[in-house]
Amino acid sequence: MPYVVVSTQIRVENGPTVVGDEQSDPELMRYLGATLTTQLGNDFKEYRSPDPPRVLLDKLELRGYKVIAMSGIGQTCIWTLNKPPEFA
C-alpha cells in the first residue's frame, strides 16, 4: 500500500513542507508541486513544496490518500497518509 509522510517545522507552518524522499513517486511529487532538494549538511534528498501542509493534505485527499496518523516531534509536525487499495 502506498504511504506518504508530510512534515513541517512548526515555526514555518506556511511552508515549505517536506512531502517525500528520493524514492517517492515522481508523478505524485509533480502534482504536489514539490521539487527534489538536498539540505545543507544532509546526505539525502527530499521533496519539498512551497505550499503549507493544509494545501498538500487537501491535494493528497483528492488523490485518494487518507491521514492515518499525526504527531508532533519537537518542533516538527508529521502526518502519515495511506492510499487504500481501492484507490491504487
Automatic annotation (TrEMBL):
Family statement drawn from the similarity comment of this UniProt entry: Belongs to the GFRP family.
Its GO CC terms are: cytosol; nuclear membrane
GO MF term list: GTP cyclohydrolase binding
Gene Ontology BP annotations: negative regulation of biosynthetic process
The gene that this protein is the product of is GCHFR
The entry's protein name is GTP cyclohydrolase 1 feedback regulatory protein
UniProt keywords (A-Z) are: Cytoplasm, Membrane, Nucleus
The cellular location(s) given in this protein's UniProt record come to: Cytoplasm, Cytosol; Nucleus membrane
Pfam families to which the protein is assigned, alphabetical: GFRP
Principal location? cytoplasm
